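Exercise 7. Given the encoded structure of a 322-residue chain, write a plausible sequence.
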């Protein structure tokens, strides 16, 4: 499958000037905005949609350190579970089966370690992801589906995705309300937005940021050492207090807690938001929503009237067939 037949088969919007890129030209590996001259390029590894002024990817070092083995136990698990387990857990939140994904167009905003997106791509031919950092090699993502860029400047026109996933991302941005507006834009009529966002006192590990103020300013080596130390202590505690006692659980707990501590300490910005506040955002973006559990929300955009909806669906189908 060529790069041209994937990301650029969608209706594009220039990341730099936000003009509709309906009038574009280029070859299979690039598209240029005729309004401002910005060029969206495929590098062979990802589509590069970065723009000068994008926020720094300052809290993504944990994925590099995990892949190198620094923040890992003796297993390949992330946060104590495999990619497949995390994928199934997300499907349970959505109330979907893997077979349901084949007919959807899906976007994960801030795919991070990439394991969930990688699992989705096994079942969905139109699953895309955008993040400020390049994907991990171990995630085995399809390069033509990956965009390197900011959620504030995504290269797609609004309303083209049946399912948008954004978990653990916007509470690390400098303008959370604007970030929510941006992640809601891609949701199509009848589509859904799956959101995970920190709430007051949840997760409890956020207490570490009060105990160690300005932790993100400490050198990475110090944060790694602190994460390894606290991770070892907490993993030992969890191992001996879990019945029946199984020493083999220690390596699993160690990997989960070491990575988790580093993830809590490293972001410069970490905000928390009440359920009432978050649900109000959904309403303001014309999405009906419900809080499924602590930090987990699902919103759905209303379908258009049948005649207009049919016209849009016809246009989408033509776009997908290109």
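Solution.
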């Amino acid at each position: 499958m060529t790069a041209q037949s994937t990301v650029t088969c969608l209706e594009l919007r220039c990341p730099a000037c936000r003009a509709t890129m309906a009038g574009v030209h280029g070859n299979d590996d690039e598209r240029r905005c005729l309004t401002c001259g910005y060029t969206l390029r495929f590098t062979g590894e990802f589509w590069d949609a970065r723009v000068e002024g994008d926020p720094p990817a300052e809290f993504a070092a944990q994925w590099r350190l995990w892949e190198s083995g620094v923040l890992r136990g003796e297993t390949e698990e992330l946060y104590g579970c495999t990619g497949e387990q995390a994928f199934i857990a997300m499907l349970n939140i959505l109330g979907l089966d893997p077979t349901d994904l084949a007919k959807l167009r899906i976007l994960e905003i801030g795919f991070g370690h990439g394991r969930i997106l990688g699992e989705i791509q096994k079942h969905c031919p139109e699953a895309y992801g955008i993040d400020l950092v390049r994907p991990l090699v171990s995630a085995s993502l399809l390069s033509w589906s990956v965009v390197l860029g900011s959620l504030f400047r995504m290269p797609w026109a609004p309303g083209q995705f049946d399912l948008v996933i954004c978990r653990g991302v916007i509470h690390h941005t400098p303008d959370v309300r604007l970030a929510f507006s941006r992640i809601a834009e891609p949701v199509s009529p009848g589509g859904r937005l799956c959101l995970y966002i920190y709430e007051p006192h949840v997760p409890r590990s956020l207490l570490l940021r009060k105990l160690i103020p300005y932790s993100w300013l400490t050198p990475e080596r110090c944060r790694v050492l602190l994460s390894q130390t606290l991770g070892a202590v907490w993993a030992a505690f969890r191992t001996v207090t879990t019945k029946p006692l199984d020493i083999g659980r220690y390596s699993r707990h160690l990997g989960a807690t070491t990575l988790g501590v580093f993830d809590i300490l490293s972001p410069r910005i970490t905000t928390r938001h009440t359920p009432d506040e978050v649900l109000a955002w959904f309403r303001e973006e014309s999405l009906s929503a419900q809080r499924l559990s602590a930090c987990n929300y699902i919103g759905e955009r209303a379908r258009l009237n049948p005649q207009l909806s049919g016209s849009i669906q016809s246009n989408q189908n033509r776009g997908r067939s290109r």
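Remark. The radius of gyration is 20 Å. Students should compare their own answers with the one above.
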